[in-house]
Specification:
163 residues; 7 helices; mainly alpha; 53% helix
């Protein structure tokens, strides 16, 4: 159970607002924005837009509210088609994923086997032709190296918590 003292709670509710949005309202928001602007919202972004409209209705203000898109609508073709009557356009990069082979490994639901599998897959080789200079700026290699170090260091703790 999370307990927050009343002063902190008052400050939080001054700085932040939250809302719950039902599925039908999400679909209606996708449809309304699409009809008014031609822009197709994904369901997660539609939730934020709907929540912003609710907030604005309950708290009239001239303050600007910004909603950032959180996903591409092509990730949610069924919801978008249900809302708009047409499936969303699929960008070439997403369509290209359909042509790639599906790769996966089946392993037993066994803690020791999962740990061994993750440790085996931790190697992040550097590309032969990469000209990244270590330490000059964060590169994909630095991120991969840091991720590998963190996973190696914390693997036992992370997996043990879920036994």
């Amino acid at each position: 159970k999370l307990t927050i003292n009343s002063d902190l709670f008052k400050k939080m509710t001054t700085d932040f607002a939250g809302a719950r949005v039902e599925d039908q309202a999400i679909l209606t928001t996708i449809k309304d924005v699409w009809q008014k602007t031609g822009y197709i919202l994904d369901p997660h972004t539609a939730t934020g837009v709907n929540a912003a409209h609710k907030y604005r209705a309950q708290n009239p203000t001239d303050t600007t509210i910004v909603c950032l898109a959180t996903a591409h609508p092509a990730k949610f073709p069924d919801a978008v088609e249900q809302a708009t009557g047409t499936p969303p356009p699929v960008p070439a990069a997403i369509a290209a994923l359909e042509k790639l082979p599906c790769r996966f490994d089946l392993i037993e639901a066994d803690t020791a086997e999962v740990k061994a599998y993750v440790k085996e897959k931790l190697h992040f080789p550097r590309a032969q032709n990469c000209n990244c200079q270590p330490g000059t700026q964060p590169s994909r290699h630095d991120i991969a190296d840091n991720s590998q170090q963190w996973i190696t260091k914390n693997l036992e703790t992370v997996i043990s918590r879920h036994d």
